[in-house]
């Protein structure tokens, strides 16, 4: 039984490795310098795939305070890649990642984004003395928010200059358009120059016909009068 | 062919006019092909250079201001004055925009930096609804050197200078570059809306227009 399992595992692993070069570029990597991360934002304690291109040797290493350890990257068909683990005690934010290879430190640098563990906006260690304003979570449909009401934690900062992020950083593109006024791409519409050329063709054709007719009529009249 | 002299003259005039129009059209066509889309719809990439000549320096950054939440956004060059309201994140991790029923409102990410404080404050608005232009329809026509002002709840105004206008494809989206600050010790602002091509099958735009600005002045309103 064990050997069948091992064989299956082995076969699946081979398939996975075989598939990687073909599909590696289809994954939604975020490119920061020459270092790519997948997924684009990681939770503490999770795995992140780190990919770098441009190193010549067999080995490369990713170094970052956000990772549990220095991560050795192995060469594959298109560069160097590793599955690294994000520390579980790291705070949300972006952390520099340094790539060492070919005998040099820091040949490439990237930024690893760490987002909060749970999915909510609220921080766990928000002070208890600041109760959330009523209806804060459902503010969407309530009309304009009073900006002054939002920041019950304003007293937390004596100077706004020392402000830190309370919540996690956004990570996704904005869905901010319904398409009702979308501008056509240049090759969709015929465009003014195209219309002018077409119109000119019609004019020339019409003018020639008119010209011919006048000429013929003059000739015809002359002949007829005789 | 025994044409009268008059007709021959008309013929020449007609031919000349036709050639002139043809050449004009070809010239316009060539210009459009090389210059690309109009200012209102920038092509993917960085269009900031289309503003002030690159050699001309931008104003120095202003020291960050005491924290205060935003109440309104003014962009004089666009004739824009819009209310600003606080929002959180969508389940996907984007700043939630205002509902389409209020297309003139601008959302501010309330759990992030306040406009005027150190860091990057994020404002999001719709470029259009399903039928008509919305508050950030002309955002892509902003240029390096333009001014953006935020009215704040404490009566002050934070004035920002645009330093970069980019179109970022959604499938090659770098959240650190878009949402994160570009320089330490500066108060920065991001104005974001949709842009690029509209994908009718997916009912969404392919890119975001991202305006990056930094604090250069302060006043009262």
Automatic annotation (TrEMBL), chain A:
Residues 116-198, 207-226 are annotated as: Disordered. Coiled coil: none annotated. Residues 182-193 have a biased composition (Low complexity). The keyword Signal applies. It comes from the Bacteria. Keywords: Signal. Residues 1-24 form the signal peptide. The keyword Signal applies. Residues 116-128, 135-152, 159-168 have a biased composition (Basic and acidic residues). This is Uncharacterized protein. It comes from Streptomyces orinoci (Streptoverticillium orinoci). The lineage of its organism: Bacteria, Bacillati, Actinomycetota, Actinomycetes, Kitasatosporales.
From TrEMBL, chain B:
This is Class F sortase. Keywords: Hydrolase. Residues 36-73 are annotated as: Disordered. Transmembrane segments: none annotated. The keyword Hydrolase applies. Residues 39-55 have a biased composition (Low complexity). Residues 56-69 have a biased composition (Pro residues). It holds the Pfam family Sortase. The lineage of its organism: Bacteria, Bacillati, Actinomycetota, Actinomycetes, Kitasatosporales.
């Amino acid at each position: 039984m064990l050997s069948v399992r091992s064989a299956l595992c082995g076969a699946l692993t081979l398939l996975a490795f075989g598939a990687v070069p073909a599909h590696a570029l289809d994954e939604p990597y975020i490119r920061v310098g020459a270092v790519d991360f997948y997924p684009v934002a990681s939770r503490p304690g999770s795995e992140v795939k780190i990919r770098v291109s441009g190193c010549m040797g067999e080995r490369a290493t990713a170094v970052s305070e956000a990772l549990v350890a220095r991560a050795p990257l192995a060469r594959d068909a298109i560069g160097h890649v590793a599955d690294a683990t994000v520390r579980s005690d790291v705070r949300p934010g972006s952390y520099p990642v340094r790539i060492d290879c070919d005998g040099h430190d820091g040949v490439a640098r990237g930024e690893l984004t760490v987002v909060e563990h749970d999915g909510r906006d609220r921080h766990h260690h928000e002070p208890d003395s600041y109760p959330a304003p009523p209806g804060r979570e459902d503010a969407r449909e309530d009309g304009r928010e009073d900006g002054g009401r939002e920041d019950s934690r304003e007293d937390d900062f004596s100077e706004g200059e020392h402000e830190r992020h309370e919540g996690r950083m956004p990570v996704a593109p904005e869905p901010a358009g319904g398409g009702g006024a979308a501008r056509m791409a240049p090759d969709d519409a015929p465009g003014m120059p195209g219309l002018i050329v077409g119109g000119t063709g019609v004019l020339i054709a019409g003018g020639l016909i008119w010209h011919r007719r006048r000429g013929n009529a003059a000739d015809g009249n002359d002949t007829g009068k005789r | 062919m025994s044409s009268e002299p008059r007709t021959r003259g008309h013929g020449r005039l007609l031919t000349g006019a036709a050639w002139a129009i043809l050449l004009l059209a070809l010239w316009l066509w060539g210009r459009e092909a090389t210059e690309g889309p109009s200012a209102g719809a920038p092509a993917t990439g960085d269009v900031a250079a289309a503003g002030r000549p690159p050699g001309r320096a931008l104003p120095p950054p202003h020291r960050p201001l005491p924290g205060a939440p935003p109440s309104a956004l003014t962009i004089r060059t666009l004739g824009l004055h819009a209310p600003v309201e606080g929002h959180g994140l969508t389940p996907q991790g984007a700043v939630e925009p205002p509902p389409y029923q209020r297309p003139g409102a601008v959302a501010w990410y309330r759990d992030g930096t306040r406009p005027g404080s150190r860091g990057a404050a994020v404002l999001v608005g719709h470029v259009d609804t399903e039928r008509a232009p919305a508050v950030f329809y002309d955002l892509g026509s902003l240029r390096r050197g333009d001014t953006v002002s935020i009215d704040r709840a404490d009566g002050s105004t934070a004035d920002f200078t645009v330093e970069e206008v980019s179109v970022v494809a959604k499938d090659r989206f770098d959240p650190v570059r878009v949402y994160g600050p570009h320089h330490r010790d500066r108060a920065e602002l991001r104005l974001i809306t949709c842009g690029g091509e509209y994908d009718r099958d997916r009912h969404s735009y392919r890119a975001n227009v991202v305006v990056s600005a930094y604090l250069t002045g302060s006043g009262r309103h």
